[in-house]
Amino acid sequence: MNTRVVTVNPRELKLLDINARYMRHETYSALVQNVKRDGKLTSVPFAARNGDGRYEVLSGNHRVKAAIDAGLETIDVMVTDDELTKDQRLAIQLSHNALSGEDDPAVLKQLYDAIGTVEFKAYAGLDDKMLELLKSVQIGSIGEANLDFQTISFTFLPAEIESARAVFAEAKKLMMSDENWLARWGDYDLFMDSLEEAGAAYNVKNMATALALVTRVFMDHRSDLSKGWLSGDGETVLHKGWVPLASVLGTSKIPAEAAITIKRAIDKMASKGEVSPTALWQAVEFWAAEYMSGA
Q: What CATH number was assigned to the domain covering residues 4-98?
């Protein structure tokens, strides 16, 4: 596409009849005030020539309207004289909106806090909602934009997806957290080595299948997670936090017949006040202690 920058009267430009990008009144008012202060647009809109010779603004409609409301006689606009189809025009309009990116909250807070005057803090145009959000941002937090990271995508066959979902759901329960965790590159290498070894062992090349094999090994060895909270002698607790039952039992599920027996016993103990209704796990600890005392 051939483009060039021209200086035009913003009132001569044709604005979009339907614009997917909206701007709240207070935000638009701040934009107008900024344009008045600068006496020009500091970023150029993009427009394409129509059949009637007028340029239609595909990106930057609010900036053009703000320039008009700010009383500017001329603005700089990037234009193309290439003949664009309707589809091209719509695609350009949406892509300029969709690919504008997102602000990293931690970086945004650093930049905003670095502004020394109230006047230019107002000029920055951050609304009350964003300012409230910035209060909770820790500068030391890790922003996505500052990381050298790699995203891996796996595609599962229909026969494998349900099994994979079950494994991931179980793993999420064991982590007992909704947080996102950052792994070291060394752990990434270990993960990829595990996939390669699992695939080689079963003679499969599909990485999704290899992942299913790795997770199956994990499911079969969940009791090994006890090493995270129990010392090697099996007597000393390593921390005071909560641990998943799967690291004790090797599974998080039991037969329904056993479950109903355990539930009835726990309900009976709770009704007698022998365990707290909010800590029913105490029943299991009580049974285990009673068994050990009679051993």
A: 3.90.1530.10
